[in-house]
Design goal:
With 583 residues, this protein is of the alpha/beta class. The protein is 33% helix and 21% strand. A seven-stranded parallel beta sheet has the order 4-10-9-8-7-6-5, covered by helices on one side. A six-stranded mixed beta sheet has the order 25-29-28-27-24-26. A five-stranded mixed beta sheet has the order 16-15-14-18-19, with helices on both faces. Helix 11 links the parallel strand 14 and strand 15. The radius of gyration is 27 Å and the shape is globular. The mean pLDDT is 95.
């Protein structure tokens, strides 16, 4: 349990935190000036240091070389006393445990850097074993090229050792790698160390530049985390070294680890600029929920249409034409890369109205395979009397035809040349001749139930809203019971539902799995801090609606930490309270 580290911003596994020393230190950062080493116990026993509130003291340790067999590591298992000053423990991925330290230093850092699989395994072992509000440090490995990846993985502290060594060896470091000093024709940097002619630039200057470049890169990374845009940066930054690209992709394969740290929604745009974007947690999560939770409640035909650049789709000119042609006679589902398929009820749900993609007019094979797989799962789950594909030839139709063949369907195609030509719009209108219209109220009911399915689980919409009364206008719909009691409201910015106190009670009494936070004996005012949390559901993610219960209070609010963070953290806001009552 730490008293000296607190997380303030999260972006996946990356964090901006605070070392609460005599003078506060913002992380991720260089730790050279704020971490002191009490020494190894291999050459001799070490006395327990007195500690210093202005520094993090690495307690005496027995470090083990990379590759040490786990059974050997166990026999030399570390022992760390409880201390009342900021402390760090040196551990390997095989000896890591909760030793009550504020910082954990990975002993085999130099072995795993450069080896993607070993790096990913070590980081996940460390992060899943140590408390959520402790910092992770890697020493002797950080460079301007790799530090963004280290932080993306979950590292909070690094030092400038490697940067200095490289400089004294004559290697000039940049964010895209290293260069022999003798090969440079000019100094491609404007830092203080580089403010001299190349002929006068020494190896000592090179070392100073390397540290400056490393410090500047950490500044960029911190700002990216605060904005929720580190992933966008990493997709480009990781390309500069093969092992970084491999590590980046391996973390995408560790879905459980990344998903647990990824919020349900962000305030910033999700940029899908590379094919690696298809593996983003937000995109995979959306596709999974649409194909495993969403239930189509319309009896009408399905019309598949292309997405639009404007979000939400219904506000675009092209989708306005589709709606005019369909006239509530069919259920509209948009096809898009990188999201997959988006039923009309979920068009405002993150990330469906929050992404931007690079439009080239050409679909890659990876994009086709991903969207086809999502569409296939969607159609296997949801039955329609007819399926109409109002999609252009390039990309879209190829995807639909793949699914048509795989599921042995008979799909009708209505586009000639382009979906918005008069001929194509006319074909769509004629194809739906004779189909009955659904009412506006039916769409409103289905929208709120679909949001509940997506947010809370398969069947949640019917379980939570069996006799639903709607108030408000789309996209600010409110769910009421038949007698007028409000249960929830639609949040148009993220396409989610927020419960009232009565809705929270209804959620608890239903068969829908509930995300709950048990608190201590107090009535929260505005927020619940982590020290006040007794237990929390493991599946809580940042952004979830949660029910808060305690001996004196019943409340509903939004999670600001994951469930595990709530239980293991000693600082920070766990839940932002929306409604509360004393019991």
């Amino acid at each position: 349990m730490t008293e000296y580290f607190e997380v303030h911003h999260r972006d996946g596994a990356a964090r901006v935190g605070e070392l609460r020393l005599t003078e506060s230190v913002t992380t991720p950062t260089l730790a050279d000036d704020v971490v002191v080493d009490a020494g190894s116990r291999w050459p001799k026993e070490r006395d327990l240091p007195e500690g210093d509130p202005s520094k993090v003291t690495i307690l005496p340790y027995r470090g083990l070389p990379g590759g040490t067999a786990p059974e050997v590591a166990d026999s030399f298992g570390p022992e760390y006393p409880d201390v009342d000053f900021p402390s760090a423990a040196v551990v390997s991925q095989y000896s890591v445990d909760d030793f009550g330290a504020d910082v954990y230093v990975l002993s085999e850092a130099q072995r795993v850097i450069g080896h993607a699989a070993a790096f990913v395994d070590a980081i996940i072992a460390m992060k899943e074993t140590t408390p959520a509000d402790t910092a992770l440090m890697l020493s002797g490995v950080a460079t301007p090229a790799n530090v963004a990846m280290l932080v993306y993985a979950g590292v909070d502290l690094v030092d400038a050792t490697q940067a200095r060594i490289k400089g004294t060896q004559g290697f000039y470091l940049t964010t895209d790698g290293q260069h022999f000093l003798e090969d440079l024709e000019e100094l491609p940097c404007a830092c203080a160390a580089c403010q001299k002619p190349l002929a006068e630039f020494t190896r000592a200057d090179c070392a100073e530049h390397n540290v400056n470049a490393l410090r500047a890169q950490l500044g960029i990374v911190r700002q990216r985390i605060r904005r929720g845009r580190l992933r966008d940066y990493i997709e480009g930054q990781a390309r500069h070294e093969a092992w970084l690209t491999s590590a980046f992709r391996r973390f995408d394969q560790e879905y459980a680890y990344m998903e647990a740290h990824t919020p349900l929604f962000r305030r910033t745009e999700l940029l899908a600029a590379t094919e690696d974007s298809l593996k983003r947690v937000e995109i995979q999560r959306f596709a999974d929920r649409v194909t495993s939770r969403y239930n189509n409640r319309f009896d009408n035909p399905l019309v598949l249409v292309p997405c639009s650049a404007r979000k939400p789709y219904s506000e675009s000119q092209s989708h306005g034409q589709y709606h005019d042609a369909i006239q509530f006679r069919a259920h509209l589902v948009s096809m898009t890369s990188p999201i997959g398929v988006v039923p009309q009820e979920l068009e405002t749900t993150y990330p469906a109205q929050h992404y931007d993609s690079v439009v080239t007019g050409h679909w890659s094979e990876d994009e086709k395979q991903f969207v086809a797989a999502v569409l296939k799962r969607y159609l296997e789950r949801n039955d329609y009397p007819r399926i109409i594909a109002h999609v252009p030839e390039k990309g879209y139709r190829d995807i639909v035809e793949r699914v048509e063949d795989a599921l042995n369907l008979d799909i009708e195609y209505t586009v000639e040349d382009h979906p918005t030509t008069p001929e194509s719009i006319g074909n769509l209108m004629q194809t739906l001749d004779g189909e009955s219209k659904y009412l506006k109220s039916e769409r409103q009911h289905n929208t709120l139930r679909a949001l509940a399915d997506y947010q809370f689980g398969d069947g949640a919409g019917d379980e939570l809203f069996p006799d639903l009364s709607i108030q408000g206008r789309y996209p600010k719909l409110r769910a009421h019971t038949a007698d007028g009691t409000q249960l929830a409201a639609m949040v148009p910015l993220y396409g989610t539902l927020s419960f009232t106190l009565e809705g929270a009670r209804h959620w608890l009494e239903s068969d829908v799995p509930t995300k709950t936070v048990e608190i201590d004996n107090f009535v929260p005012q505005g927020s619940v801090l982590a020290p006040g949390v007794v237990t929390a559901s493991d599946d809580i993610r940042v952004g979830d609606d949660v029910v808060v219960q305690g001996p004196q209070a019943f409340a509903v609010g939004v999670a600001k930490m994951s469930g595990r963070e709530m239980e293991t953290s000693t600082r920070g806001i766990a839940v932002q309270i929306r409604h509360v009552e004393e019991v």
